[in-house]
């Protein structure tokens, strides 16, 4: 019987195409779960199911019923929220996946810090505070520089550095508006200076396989932490890379992650590596297009699907050479009228693609309130340095024309 994949796709994701394409490549049966009922459901009852992603256990029950008619072989979530739903479904249907507590721990920044600190994984000193608490009082007691961060947002939304009490109170006001719920908590952390890398991995039966380590050559010193360039392979010395991998392995174990993709952010300085965050999902946005594996250049999505379905994985070895992506910085606040220079940017040497994902008329919101990059630039070359330079040169060709809102 052909295996059937259940793919959990939030309506607002860039990732749908890559995953659906990978499923097609694999020739498996596909059921797409999304939050809103589709008019297509009547014509394609095995191919579509509606789930409330905010209620993982109810979603799991719906899938258990659905699977009586259409047996499911594997389940994959594509982002932070659906990773939890995938874990609940995997547990209920005895499929490959993470235990719910592990997916939850990866999602909740405070729970994650507690577990990591409790297992001796190096993490910044942290405190949990309530948004409703008097910020002046908190500001007097914390040590600077510090970082304020919401518990359950992603893509650096609402993550703000403060260097003194005045900055803390201002940052708190912005965070409060972003979080929008007065009874929510937030973290106040020690700011860890240093160089940041991202580690992309696949956990197979509790064992972490490193798929790529990305350098982030632009300094991320705040006050906001907008990502820009990711380049792999990392130029970090081998011994340090080893300690970065070991730190991530310990974090995977501490959180109880057993299966599937992880994306970790780490910093290192003279005190060694620091685990900033580990998510039980693949790299975000369209960035996964940077990674290709084996002789045939299979995609990250295909590897993730194969693992979830228990199909053999031909290779976890990234292709030779260097590759990189630039998450195009948000050019300012305003309504996007047009982007000039795209053809010139695409024509630059080593540049593989320039994808503008923002639509004309779309309102661009800078960090920390916003987090949607207006597009992505991809490049490949022999060395990380030339890839990085190509990304910068292509970006310099782009001109974003904004209308005031
Ligand atoms: P998110 O899940 O929203 O991306 P993170 O916790 O990963 O939130 O933080 C986003 C970015 O902010 C990190 O990649 C890092 O650059 C920066 N950052 C977060 N916490 C710290 C910290 N304690 N010290 C230094 N930088 C930090």
Q: How would you describe this protein?
A:
With 405 residues, this protein is α+β, with helices and mostly antiparallel strands. Among the domains are: 4-104, Rossmann fold, CATH 3.40.50; 125-190, 2-Layer Sandwich (Dna Ligase, domain 1); 321-405, ATP-grasp fold, B domain (D-amino Acid Aminotransferase, Chain A, domain 1), CATH 3.30.470. Helices cover 31% and strands 28% of the residues. The chain has eleven helices and 21 strands. It has helices at residues 16-26, 56-69, 80-93, 100-107, 109-118, 135-141, 165-179, 238-255, 300-309, 342-346, 384-397; strands spanning 4-8, 29-34, 48-50, 74-77, 126-130, 146-150, 160-162, 185-190, 195-204, 207-215, 229-232, 260-269, 272-279, 292-293, 298-299, 322-327, 334-340, 351-356, 363-364, 375-381, 399-403. The strands form six sheets. Strands 3-2-1-4 form a four-stranded parallel beta sheet. Strands 5-8-6-7 form a four-stranded antiparallel beta sheet, sandwiched between helices. A four-stranded antiparallel beta sheet has the order 10-9-12-13. α1 crosses α9 (300-309) and α2 crosses α3 (80-93). The radius of gyration is 21 Å and the shape is globular. Bound molecules: adenosine-5'-diphosphate.
